[in-house]
Amino acid sequence: MGTFREDFLWGGAVAANQFEGAWNVDGKGASVSDMCTNGSHTVPKRLTTKIEEGTLYPSHEAIDFYHHYEEDIALFAEMGFKVFRTSINWTRIFPTGMEKEPNEAGLAFYDKVFDCCKKHGIEPLVTISHYELPYALVEKYNGWEGRELIEYFMNYCKAIFARYEGKVKYWLTFNEINAGTMPLGAVLSTGTVKGYSGPVNEVPDKPQERFQALHHQFLASALAVKYAHDNYPEYKLGNMICFVTSYPATCNPADIIANQEHMREVNWYCSDVQVRGEYPAYAKSIWDKHGITIKMEPGDDKILKEGAVDFYTFSYYMSNIISSDPKADKGDGNLIAGGRNPYLEASDWGWQIDPQGLRYTLNEIYDRYRIPLMVVENGLGARDEIEADGSINDDYRIDYLRKHISEMREAVKDGVDLLGYTPWGCIDLVSASTGEMAKRYGFIYVEKYDDGTGTLARRKKKSFDWYKQVIASNGEDL
């Protein structure tokens, strides 16, 4: 008997806006991601209000999965994938988000992708909204701040639920929905950036807009879950949280309280609503702290209660530490500002590597909610070099993943009900945080570079065969 369940879903994860390309092909409209320029570890990407001539927008071609999907899915199948986490570009189905009828060419593309998965025995895990909000909805409604988006989202959900019946069973409503609890999250997750043009790390923070937008996303998610349950009982709907585990900087009780407040606002606020179907008791203290008044309508509580998700998924890349001292070092690498942990190493991009934190996190989430879990993003962004013989020896990636899978195994022994594991960027793609190609995650190298050049040729890294043996052994041979 192995540690992981016999039907454990091994696979990989990507996002449409980061790897599909073909940004304006076959009727597709512009999304928020399509308005983001390239960037780097030191130069932030920019959000523009119009397409600038001569400026590089990485999502426009990305790695062109749109024209390489058969080749790429065949490579995933060669590794033994049981599941492939991908997303649907909302603007490929409804170019502005406001059309009454879907774009047939967009629907047909995903038919081909899901049929190709089925041919290879791979189960699609589909994120409905993964940082690709139609930009037209930002211009008209300031993104999810407008309650009107709920109806447009449901129109989108109904179209794809009906079209892909029998092809897709597992759905996630919003990718990393809790990004909206953070200032930078307003750019991609909620779209509350109307009229803003400039570096994404300088977006003016408007907590009232962000948290109001989150309320509308909670309602949209709940309505999608209930609609699926009522009309497609075979569908399973999950949430998706960007989980950045944090620890108190010291055993000073003030640090303990500061960390508890941080964990509540950043990691628990959204999932408490989506899993328990109601706002947590501490929500009011968060609203009061930020001067927020959530506008609710009669019946909103009932919608949230009836739309609780079936399973919980999350991304896990790092951890950080929280101090009550306002002068404490905030660090500059992690997704969420926090102090440097002296016990941990860091990636090339400054993200602190904490495999044991994944075991701790899995136990904390499962103890809190007692519903099945899935790790749907985890991985190491690094600079990969092609050797003279054409090989790519990414032992650092193998080491990172091996340690995290080992800790997942310990969490399962602890009693956690873990459904699957889809490491992030199973094929190289555009980095969401920096807008660059140099930050590579994949088992498959794509010859595409930060200046927009490259043949788009695919080649296997050393980690490709390593992950293949991990899957074949159901996680026993690491």
Major sheet, described briefly? Answer: 8 strands, parallel, barrel
Overall pLDDT confidence? 96
Number of helices: 14
Structural class: alpha/beta
| Element pattern in H and E | EHEHEHHEHHEHEHEEHHHEEEEHEHEEEH
CATH class: Alpha Beta
Distance between the termini: 16 Å
The name of the CATH architecture is Alpha-Beta Barrel
Strand order of the largest sheet: 1-3-4-5-7-9-13-14
Oligomer: single chain
Helical fraction equals: 25-40%
Classified in CATH, the superfamily is Glycosidases
C-alpha Rg, in Å? 21 Å
The portion of residues forming beta strands comes to 5-15%
Q: Outline the low-pLDDT stretches.
A: none
Tell me the domain tally. Answer: 1
**CATH topology title:** TIM Barrel
Q: Which descriptor suits the 3D outline?
A: globular
**Count the strands?**
16
